[in-house]
Amino acid sequence: MTMTHPGLPASWGWLILAFMGLVSLWGLFRPSPATAATPALSLPRLPLLGRPLHRLTTSPWPLLTLKLAMVLLFLTIIAAGLFGTPIPERNIATVLTWNLWWAGLVFSVFFLGTAWCAICPWDTLAQWLVRRRLWRRAEPDNSLNLRVPRRLRTIWPALLMFIALTWLELGLGITVSPYATALIALLMVVLATVSLAIFERKAFCRYFCPVGRTVGCYSQLAPVELRPIDADVCARCKTLDCYHGNETVEPCPTWLVMGRLTQNSYCTSCGNCTRSCPHTNIAWRLRTPSEEALRGGRPHWDEAWFMIGLLALTGFHGITMMPFWEDWMSGLARLIGDSGRLLASFTLGLAACLALVAAVYTLLARLTHRLMGSELPFRRFFSAQAFVALPLAFAYHLAHNLNHLVRETTRLGDVFMNPLGIDAQPLSMMEKHMRHMEMLIPQDTLFAIQAALMMFGFWLAVQITRHRSRRLMPDGAPVAGWRLAPLFAFAVLMTGFHLWLLMQPMVMRM
Amino acid sequence: MPDSDFSNARRAFFRRAAHKTGEAIVRQADAHAAGRAAHWIRPPWALDELEFLLACTRCGACVEACPHGVIFALPARLGAQVAGTPALDLLHHGCHLCEDWPCAESCEPAALARPVSEGAAPPPRLPRLARAAIDTTACLAWQGPECGACAASCPVEGALCWDGEKPRIDMDRCCGCGLCREACIVDPRAVRVGSLYRREAAAGERE
To answer: First vs last Cα of chain B: how many Å apart?
Structure first.
């Protein structure tokens, strides 16, 4: 028997719809505004707590401790997956990977940006295997240090890997197989290690990793960033230790120069720059989350497609967890004569979802391009405005995963008692009902947070369209609101679709 | 017609002919030398290419004198005329424009010679070495999102200026030392450094 979680009540739905209507109307009648920089607060300048916290980020040991803990947990997961019980809800591999990590990852971005990348066990293991140093720079570094071929220096590989991961997760259903989960985890370590042994720096993190690029993309909406404390110090710096590293500290793994950094996407929070800077001029900063989306970010063609892909895939995740998804799939399978695990039908559904979102965005962006009378080549317009997809994807991703987290991690402690699930039985009907009733926070609070997230995403999408359109005009002239109507419509359509998904009951993941 | 007049006219004719031929040969040699010189960049304060080739003794003193290892001797495969003459390796290094110009100081035949002040006009403070330009299709700051690796590399005030996030080279101030190219982190580098003798150079900037 499948059990479902109740969806967002209709009253919340109406409220969000009304909010969307009001914001859209307001946007239509207001010219696009000019964007000013918002202040940011460097950690060392924070009173009282600032200095000690900053010291923690400049010492290698706290981070190393966290990495060690993560690697231990990761190895436990692999061991449990390979040798433990095949019952997914009793095996630590599936429970920790899918119920906690995969669902919670996006929340770490909401609060801490790309912090996950700093403690990622895939990269840590690769680093230890290839460099054979705990954290110090290795000389020689045991890598062939080949340049990444020019054609591969994009995030298309990461987008393809992310689509493949979605296919494995939802199509092949590796979320209910501890063994497959462990194999995928091992595969990622192998990929990271091979890439580190062949290519310069951390090409895997920058170009290939689906998780890293997703986290990086979303982190453009994070409230924290690693930046210079004093920009003038960097302007006078000739040694660029952040980029080249020094004798003990590795260089920036993703080829960043800190001095003029404006975009979080490729920063992996590794903190090498905080340690290598001879002027100790790099620190964590608190900022307005929308700063980068409205001002700093300049997505390229590949990054723009990644954002669109992210939007399509988060929506697709949602659809597959609807009770009617099974009926759709079997209907499609009958139509094309698919049988067995209906992989062909699933693949078709995935492709259709990706193509549909991309087509709708392209069409509406084209219309806006016309209405604005922009002289910019459409390709550049497409890339610059694709940012509108990011808050929409992020907000729904958070709202959807919050449902999982709040409802499906209540008995997380159980798997730690018996990680391999030795002699464990599948959940009995009573246990299922018990778990179904238990929640981390009251249901009404959950609904309120979900609604707030949807409104936040929509508001940000509208603001991004308004601010970015003005910067796309040749002389920075204001753009009349109604000329942006197609892109507002895109935000309304996507948020509406996400809202509808949230209001449906969702199949429970055990 | 008196005999002396005739001989005077003949003498003048031959003199003029020799003069014209000589002039043409020198111009030809100059153009030839300049044309070939587009392939390398001479050290600071080098004379014009033909004069430089005549003055330089291929002693290698400037190669030794350069504290940053930027000067190298041209290889023999480039021909007997230029083999062993010094050039700057600006593709890989930048000339640090040392304050005391050890390369020019070490040059005994004065093929590298700092100009002395003539009358009221002070001598130029910096030599023109090469022409540098930013390849905006490769430059990270131009292509986005940002970079700034070259920001502090320029020793000449105002030669490397910034339009917001994007760097620009002011051709009137830039002396072509190539330090910004050395700092550039893009591969291949986004700062192009070329000889002042390049054809496009001849049209515009060379006096």
So the answer is: 49
Taking residues A434-451, report their average pLDDT: 89
| A422 to chain B, closest Cα gap in Å | 52
Given a cut of 50, whether residue A320 has pLDDT beyond it is yes
Confidence tier at B178 by pLDDT (50, 70, 90): very high
Q: Is A34 on the interface with B (CB under 8 A)?
A: no
Distance in Å, alpha carbon of B144 to nearest chain A alpha carbon: 6
| Option in A237, A259, A298 nearest B145 (CB) | A298
pLDDT tens for residues B114-173? 887 666 667 778 899 999 999 998 898 888 778 889 988 999 988 999 887 889 999 889
Strands (E), A248-393: 282-286
Are B169 and B14 in contact by the 8 Å Cβ rule? The answer is no
Q: Within an 8 Å CB–CB cutoff, is residue B35 touching chain A?
A: no
The answer for B 130-159 residues in CB contact with A (under 8 A) is: 141, 143-149, 151-153
- Res. A401: pLDDT tops 70: yes
Check if A360 contacts B (Cβ < 8 Å).
Answer: no
Residue A132 per-residue DSSP state: -
CA distance B152 to chain A (A): 5
pTM: 0.88
Q: For residue A176, report the phi and psi dihedrals to the nearest 5 degrees.
A: -105, 10
Q: Which of residues 279-338 of A touch B (CB under 8 A)?
A: 296-300
Q: Which of B115, B66, B61 is nearest to B94 (CA)?
A: B66
Instruction: Say what the ipTM of the complex is.
Output: 0.75
- Residues of B whose CB is below 8 A from A262: 145-146, 165
One-letter identity of residue A378: F
Q: Which chain A residue has the Cα nearest residue B164?
A: A260
C-alpha span between B183 and B152 (Å, rounded) = 9
DSSP A330-369: HHHHHHHT--TT-HHHHHHHHHHHHHHHHHHHHHHHHHHH
* pLDDT of res. B207: 32
Residue range A68-72: mean pLDDT, rounded: 96
For all residues of chain B together, what is the average pLDDT? 86
Q: Which of A114-123, A392-401, B121-130 has the lowest mean pLDDT?
A: B121-130
CA distances from A96 to A119, A168, A423 (A): 16, 17, 19
Residue type, B123: P
Residue A401 in tokens: 């995963």
Of all residues in chain A, what percent carry a pLDDT higher than 90? 61
Residues 210-269 in A contacting B (C-alpha not used; CB under 8 Å): 234-238, 240, 243, 255, 257, 259-263, 265
Determine, for residues B149 and A257 on separate chains, whether the beta-carbon distance falls below 8 Å: yes
CA distance linking residue B82 with residue B49, whole number of Å: 10
